[in-house]
Amino acid sequence: MDASQIAPDDRDARHAQVVIVGAGLTGLCTAIMLREAGVGVIVLEQGEPGALASGHNTGKATLLQGSRLSTIRRHHPARLVRAYVDANRAGLRFLGAVAERVGIPVQESTAYSYAQSPEGLETVDAEIAAGREAGLMLERVDRLDVPFPLLGAAALPGQLAVDPMLLVTGLAAETRALGARIVTGVRALGVRASEPAVIRTSAGEFTGDRVVIATGAPILDRGLYFAKVKPMRSQIASFRLPQDQLPDGLFISVDAPIRSIRRATVAGEERLWVGGGSAMVGDGEQLAVERQRLIDWTGAWYPDASDAVAWAAQDYVSLNQVPFVGRMPRGRGRVYVATGYAKWGLTNAAGAAIRLSTELLADRGVRRPGWATVIGTRITVPADLAQGAKAGLDVGIRAVTGWARAMTSPSAGERPAEGHGVVERRGIRPTAVSTVDGTTCAVSAVCPHLGGIVNWNPAEQTWDCPLHASRFDAQGRRIEGPAVHDLAPADASVAAEAATRSLVE
């Protein structure tokens, strides 16, 4: 259902017991669980379901996640690692069950976290120790028949691989079949935690007894989650490869350069998928470099690979290593949030949905799982505080550097070359100018979230904010991130532009 189909005064169509903002994996899984319990649900989506990270990940649903378990264990007690594994296990079971129910093909395979170097073997051993301590039957493998460097690996059979976009499409169909409404073409602008809660959107107001913010980076600044996660863009490249050269298994390296490898079936064709090449959002030049390195790496170890198609997806790494899920601060118990999946969104999203739905159904006697209680009561440790302090310092440096560079780059009056963008000063205004498909556009270079200066991303031809990862297309239209407004027109008044840069409540 498109927002244009709902009349502004149709209160019945604009109210539900739970309104979910975001039709990605978290939002759709939560909607399915709530509808199965008979709860009325509306899902609001700016684009189409799965248009961003949920439909563009590597499609691995696995409890063995590179070096994630040993990383969490370094910062937290064993009981939290076990709870994290149990949450992902519950998410994996849910995804497998719903995929079977709606007829989405899923491939069962063995997951491998492998080392490319002697130093990486130490990480493999640490991952095995942390996984076994958390109840996983991990095996140590010393050699596998693969062309790329592999000195040893942790192995876990019985994991799943799926076409992520096909999965999201199936989840959306199941959501609708259960009676929830997915309203597309709606951008959420803010939430008032009244009774009922009011969701301000580009298509007017919606109301709900409860609200779930499932937008990757929360579009509300309550709780300051934008400062508690590190935003990354990770890349995937798909290649045509002779069938006898496609690998069996779900591989990811634990040491640099990170490489995620699997065979994937898309539209009936089996292809090689290679992921990795991450960069901080806002560092578009590095993203372009990493993309080429990814393609070159694949060509070196798979010389017959051809027909490369590359894309990227955005994810957020929780600074205390474990996703943030539950009630949002200053939400009066009516606003919930989920973020910080650290690039393992399939199982973490479904696990988050389980936790959210059980909390939302608590008044019906539904008890949340024990693992959810452990995760929800975790203690912030000194390492978390150090990570947060460093992240805050980095953001401050990027903010000052961006403004200094913009204000010392007066306009040269030249049109950027095709596919290029520049930030220049026009009068006292930092202005972002780009040329894409022969059209040159000039918009404000000031991010409407908290005033950072955007950078050009040549790999994807977008304007990306290096502060908190808001992204915009060449015309300045908001794509994703904590910002809820577009970049202002280049000729907007300073006052009008500043009016869009307030904390969203």
Secondary structure layout:
Layout: E1 15-21, H1 25-36, E2 41-45, E3 60-61, H2 68-75, H3 78-102, E4 107-115, H4 118-133, E5 139-141, E6 152-161, H5 164-177, E7 181-184, E8 188-192, E9 197-201, E10 204-213, E11 229-240, E12 250-253, E13 259-266, E14 269-280, H6 284-301, E15 306-318, E16 324-327, E17 335-339, H7 345-360, H8 370-376, H9 382-407, E18 421-426, E19 429-436, E20 439-444, E21 455-457, E22 462-464, E23 471-472, E24 478-480, H10 494-499
Parallel strand pairs: 1-2, 1-10, 2-7, 4-12, 10-17
Antiparallel strand pairs: 3-6, 4-6, 5-6, 8-9, 9-10, 11-14, 11-15, 12-13, 13-14, 16-17, 18-19, 19-20, 21-22, 22-23, 23-24
Helix pairs in contact: 1-5, 1-7, 2-4, 3-7, 3-8
Could you walk me through the main structural features you see in this protein, from its secondary elements to its overall organization?
The structure is a single chain. With 505 residues, the chain is of the alpha+beta class. It folds into three domains: 3-55 and 166-227 and 322-381, 3-Layer(bba) Sandwich (FAD/NAD(P)-binding domain); 103-161 and 228-318, 2-Layer Sandwich (D-Amino Acid Oxidase, Chain A, domain 2); 397-499, Rieske Iron-sulfur Protein (3-layer Sandwich). It contains ten helices and 24 strands. The strands form four sheets. Strands 3, 4, 5, 6, 11, 12, 13, 14 and 15 form a nine-stranded mixed sheet that branches. α1 packs parallel to α5 (164-177), α3 crosses α7 and α3 (78-102) crosses α8 (370-376). The longest helix has 26 residues, at 382-407. It is globular and about 60 Å long. The two termini are 27 Å apart. The mean pLDDT is 92.
